[in-house]
Design brief:
The complex is a heterodimer of chains A (1178) and B (452).
Chain A lengths: L1 H37 L4 E9 L1 H12 L2 E3 L2 H6 L3 E9 H8 L5 E6 L2 E6 L8 H7 L4 E9 L9 E4 L5 E3 L5 E7 L4 E6 L2 E7 L5 E6 L13 E3 L4 E3 L7 E4 L1 H4 L8 H7 L3 E4 L8 E4 L12 E4 L2 E2 L12 E7 L2 H4 L10 E6 L9 E11 L12 H13 L4 H5 L8 H11 L4 H11 L4 H9 L3 E13 L3 E13 L5 E14 L4 E15 L30 E2 L5 H6 L10 E2 L7 E21 L2 E20 L4 H9 L1 E4 L4 E4 L5 E25 L2 E26 L15 E2 L6 E2 L6 E20 L3 E12 L6 H4 L1 E10 L14 E13 L9 E5 L9 E6 L8 E14 L4 E20 L9 E23 L3 E19 L26 E4 L14 E3 L2 E3 L2 H4 L10 E5 L4 E11 L2 E11 L2 E2 L6 H7 L30 H8 L6 E2 L2 E12 H4 L7 E9 L3 E4 L19 E9 L1
Parallel strand pairs in A: 2-5, 6-12, 18-21
Antiparallel strand pairs in A: 1-3, 4-5, 6-9, 7-8, 7-10, 10-11, 13-14, 15-20, 16-17, 18-19, 20-21, 22-23, 22-58, 23-24, 24-25, 25-26, 26-29, 27-28, 29-30, 30-33, 31-32, 33-34, 34-37, 35-36, 37-38, 38-39, 39-40, 40-43, 41-42, 43-44, 44-45, 45-46, 46-51, 47-50, 48-49, 51-52, 52-55, 53-54, 55-56, 55-57, ...
Helix pairs in contact in A: 11-12
Chain B lengths: L1 H26 L6 E2 L4 H8 L2 H4 L6 H4 L4 E2 L2 H5 L3 H7 L13 H19 L9 H26 L31 H15 L15 H14 L3 H14 L24 E3 L2 E2 L10 E2 L1 H5 L6 H5 L1 E3 L5 E3 L9 E2 L2 E2 H14 L3 H13 L15 H15 L6 H10 L6 E5 L2 E5 L12 H7 L7
Antiparallel strand pairs in B: 2-5, 3-9, 4-8, 6-7, 10-11
Helix pairs in contact in B: 2-7, 2-8, 7-8, 8-9, 8-10, 9-10, 10-11, 10-14, 11-14, 14-15, 14-16, 15-16
The chains are: A mainly beta (1178), B mainly alpha (452).
Amino acid sequence: MQNSATGKFLPRLTHQTLLFMRMLTVFILAACVQVHANVSAQTVTYSAKNAPIEKVFKEIKRQTGYGFMYSSNIVKVAKPVTIEADKTDLKEVLDACFLNQPFTYELNGKTVVVKERVDPPKKESGVSEALSAPPVDVHGVVKDETGKPVVGASVQVKGTNKGTTTNELGEFILIGVDDKATIVISAVNIETREVGINGRKEISLVAKVKISKLEDVEITNVNTGYQSLPKERATGSFEKIDNKLFNQQVSTTVLNRLETIANGLYFDKKTNTASPRIAIRGISSILGPTAPLIILDNFPYEGDLANINPNDVESVTLLKDAAAASIWGARAGNGVIVITTKNAKIGQPLKIELHNSVTIEEKPNLFYYKNMTSSDYIDAELFLYNKGFYNSQISSVAKSGLAPVIELLVKKANGSMNAAEVDSRINALRSIDIRNEYNKYMYQVGINTQHAFTLSTGSNNSSHIFSAGFDNNTSVLGGKLSRISIRNNSSFRINNRTQLIAGITYTQSNTIAGRTGYDGLSSSPGILPLYTQLADVNGNALPVTVGLRIPYVDTVGRGKLVDWHYYALDEHKHVDNRTDLQSFIGNATLTYKIIKGLSADIKYQYESQNINNNIVNDIGSYYTRNLINTFSQLNYTTGSVTYKVPYAGILRSNNTKIEAHNIRGQLSYTRQWKSHELNAIAGTEVRSTKATGSSLVTYGYNADILSVIPMDFVNLYPTFVTGSNALIPSDQNFSSVLNRYVSFFGNAAYTFKSKYSFSISGRRDASNLFGVRTNNKWTPLWSTGFAWDISKEKFYALKHLPTLRLRATYGYSGNVDPNRSGFTVSNAAVSSIYTLLPTATLSQFSNPDLRWERMGILNLGADFKAFDNRLQGSIEYYHKNGKDLLGFTPVDYTTVPASRLAKNVASIKANGWDVNISSINIRAPFIWETNINFNYNNDKVTDYFITNRSAINYLSGGLSISAFVGQPVYGIYVYPWAGLDPQSGDPMGFLNGKASKDYNTLVGSSWPIDSLKYAGPSMPRFFGSIGNSFSYKGLTLSIRVSFKMGYYFLPNSINYNNLFSDRKGHIDYEGRWQKPGDEQFTTIPSLVYPADSRRDQFYNNSEILVQKADHIRLQYITLNYNVKSIFKRLPVKNLDMYININNLGLIWRANDRGIDPDYRDNTILPSKTYAIGIRTSL
Amino acid sequence: MTINIKIPIAILVLVFLISTSCKKFLDEKSDKKLVIPSTLADLQALLDNSNTLVLNDPYAPEFCSDNIYLLTPSWLSLPDYVRGMYIWNKDNIFEPTTNDWSSLYRKVYVTNTVLETLQKIEKVASNEEEWNNIKGQALMIRGKSFLCAVLIWAPAYDSTSANSDMGIPLRLNTDLAETAVRPSVQQTYVQAISDLQASIPLLPKRGIHQIRACKAAAYGLLARTYLSMRNYPKSGLYADSSLQINATLLNYNTVSISPTFPIALFNTEINYYTTFSNTVFTNSYGRVDSLLYASYAANDCRKTLFFSANTDGSFGFRGSYTASAAGFGGVASDEVYLTRAEAFARAGMTNEALTDLNTLLQARIKTGTFTPVTASGSSDALAKILLERRKELLWRGLRWMDIKRLNKEGAGITLKRIVNNTVYTLAPNALGFALPIPEYVINLSGMPQNPR
């Protein structure tokens, strides 16, 4: 069946794509051949009639790489050049150019120095030189009228070939200059000036900015990963975060910094604080992957983003609409984030940058947890004990752990401790709060140090950048991370047609896990009781109930077994959990200019990442002691112990390896003629990513002698406590996942008169996604766009808005979920211990109608500049139309062994606005700049072919999809609230319009969705951030505030079932209904026994709990001090010192429950961090 | 000059490479562990998955029966679905999505996948034995699953009403589009019997391991099926066929009483091994009915091998053939002996019936103290056989079926629960003997719920 499908598909591929492949191959080969032919001679092919000399210079430079050095005066007097050269030697061409000119030239390395024609020097000149005044060294600085340094201006000693250029601070040094000489300063954007030295050694010049300055706009290039194009000509929606904004924060990883500064990027941390879900412009997929594609320079980055040294990052670009992202095809459905690293430029002087910082992280605030008090919890345990709740557990032969209070009560009941003693001990526990214990013993202040070093340089034909980064972090739990990253990138101009860029990046990090955090330790019946003590008064570790009952463990085995207690305080000393990571990226790009405007390049990248996690649980660790005891066989008569698990450490190792190969052949065409400009690329790309993993357990491991003991993992052994048989855990596993993609892509942009731009792009992807029919493996995606620089039109009359550009794009992007298949798929499982033959489990069920998700995106944008460029920004409107989105639909598990199944069930529509405004409110000497990101997103489900309309499918508090037609993709649905029953404190809903406590019906699967109330969206409608920065004399203060508005959340409250079974209490317990009349003050239901899970479910999903999630957050404050601008004589090019405070917390929230809606109320919030650092340029 | 030659050659090579490798390149499997089941080995791997097919037999038939009882505090501390099942509530006694129904129909789905895929694999001389064996395993497991389900969610088989009583859905393919419907009890039994019968010529007498379906088990299951239909002659015939293959009994005198779970895993009586488990079967929760415990004679090995005393004087069960607190849901020869004995007794063949009973008891009663059971007649023999059946087959999930079928014959067994000072009863032949189907299933499929 599969064969016939591919059989049909293959001829189609051959026909359409091979023609293209053939063409590409011709170009690439031609390129290679030409490289050979051209390496030796420097020739020029050019013909011009009466061309301005500068144009000729430019062309020669382009073809040969020879630079020209000349003063602008010379150009003014130059005569037009007529030339006819066909592979003519450079020297001949130059001679022809200078034939009738009032000046001549001299070759100085690869620089053509243009100089005035002077008579050949006479022999006596040597004498006059000796007689004149001795030469001086002149140090100078060039600034414009606003005091901004003029960078890259040419500084020439008049009448000589001596010259230099100004640096980033506008400074220059001329060595050995005649003290009466005149220097000429010129640059594109300033009027040329001549100044006599007159014996001065320090010269300060104010250059007059040319009137034409407004046209000389700074060109912002945006990088798509395939090409770098000027934002001014792009039709799509690009969001660029430059180096300056990116560096206002300090962090070890790249992604953290984007949260508040990237326009349209939303981090959802409600379900996972550690690795938040990232969405660009809201949800594009219901079930598929929602994470955007991350591109590092040219290729998708497969490794861990934590490997990237943020100091290597030059800029980050978000590709938001179809025109911007469709070039990335099927994986771009959720948007693309392109990370561009720093590079050196050809001809750039040596530059050394150093960055050192120290970040201090506060201990986390564990009291953010909305726990009930220890005293209340003890009361609840007493209540349950008296009801006999623990009877079965107390008499159980399994001896599962019981809370300390229960153990005391057991002692009271069996008379082994007197009642008064028990009561006083219980009362003493009431004042203990485990969070204080954790704060005292487990948490510490975290310290991160970061050192980075970058060296970049360029010569006439090559450029190099080398960087190294060193990170040393100590986490709040005492974990250690050290990371070294080294990167080198070199670019070589082999000849005037060929360029080679090669780079390597190597990262190594070593992590040692620290102590177990407050939310990390689970014991057999849920979390540890809140009143648990970790240490006695002397700070010695106390046993904590994690596994078995403490009184049992105290005496079991009559001392013949290993200590079976768990000591939370000491456990980490016996667990050596190390993760070593090595990541390597090597890449090479060969670019060849075929003919004018047409170039071909081949890019190759190899990426590998190795992660090695070794956990050594030594003989002192609970993990090892517990296994040893569990499988010990004790002969009570002889007292001898037979170990089935050796009395030695256990090593658990996990290795994962990712290897990716990318190869891309691409043709680029850029041509300008008269009023036309065309930019086009086309190419093909092949990617292959392989992830392999293995995990092994080694028993009998001793790190000192590397011992190993072979084990029997196949036979069952009786366990110590219950005598039931069990296997010794082996946890051995291998995995191998291979993803392959073949893509063809092309895009073209045509600009007419620099006013109208039209773009079109298309892409086809194929992959080896499992189980997808081969002819569905290919998916075509396309986009088109138009941009109009209306302010360049004659009729344009908006004086206050001198620059206005309008853009519109439309296109499709796709999304594919590699975890879904149309076929019944079985997954190899661990081989049977019984038959010793392979076993398999069904992981996916026949679902033949699965299709790719498709998302059509319309984007309308306007870019503007006003008030002398002091106000600039963009406003974009987008409309997304998603079809065939995968969604879960509940299915009858009689038919298929699942309660819900993914199907292409939904269509969604979303629209929104992205607004980005930057303004300079006050300019010089005090500068106040503001940057505003404002985003609006409104999504709506338009179709959901769900057969089931049960209310219970919609109760997730907005954490999972609630696809109800006409409502947002993530919405909160709740039970209407009829108050508490005044007699019993039971929560009540509505049944047939009347208050009801019939939870079986209300929470039953036949209760319809229409009976629920829609409380609002759970994703923010409005969000964004405002950054202000204030500068005065080298001092800059940046403050960033973010906000999220127009959404709701469903906080946790007391759930008696969870309290009883898992010890998960809630502070709301305090305010519960206790007696008639309480219903006037409280909405928290009474305590009932036995707990009714449906009553809990009803209350915890009821209208009464819904809260507005709106909030404003102070994200960071950075104070930067540019030392160099004050102490100008410092022997450095630049020096900045800064302080950055991050995660400052909320400054306003709509809810009065003290909850940070970004995180929910049962997690540890990120702590405040304080960083201090210094950036130096040499 | 040379350039002109090199280019076309290179193009040809490249084009050839790309065109031939593109398809292969993309046909490489993405996850090595993933397989679209298509070979006999793939199918056998699915059938050897003990998590799906060996564990997770239904626990309701044992928990709803009169072998087990709970004390009020234990009952109160259990999840509400379990509490509800204990007192035979009229609804919400199964967790919404993972329950006895879902585990049984998961087994059915796996076997349907196997049977559908088998149709695409050609049977040739070299694979015939394996092909047959796999088909036989799938059919037997499917038949057993249908039988389990009909015993829980349908009324006891009654030939007078079986054509109108509602049975359970008979899924015979993996087609998602096909909605589950309820055929009659008669149709359900016809399907279960046809699956089991069809499996017999295909299966080996015994499997390579007891987790594999085999002829001895299929015969045993047919005997059980006909027993539940009260078709005793056929029941006896199939029991006899099973015993022809495996008549081994474990002599309890040879079993040491000291381990917590004395009877070793995979003992020789077992023809086919499956288990069911739940917290309620651990001895701190579920206690053995005290009258039942009292019915064992002092010289009965089972009295010590099966039970462990709790501190309050009650007894828990430890004699499971699973060597754990889990119940045994498979087929063992002791059950088959009792089935054949019952069939003999009901056919008036008292001697044959007593021979079978005594063969079994000889392996149960302490050596040297055993005196063969005698009976005054066939009905006396039947009564004694039924008593031994109850005493032998604890924690086997069989009592529920026995109560249902025996009440049809006027046994008048009334079930009674006392918890939290309330008495709940289930009268003989009450509608409550067909447990409510999970509401989730009813709601999605639109099937009719069992009448209350």
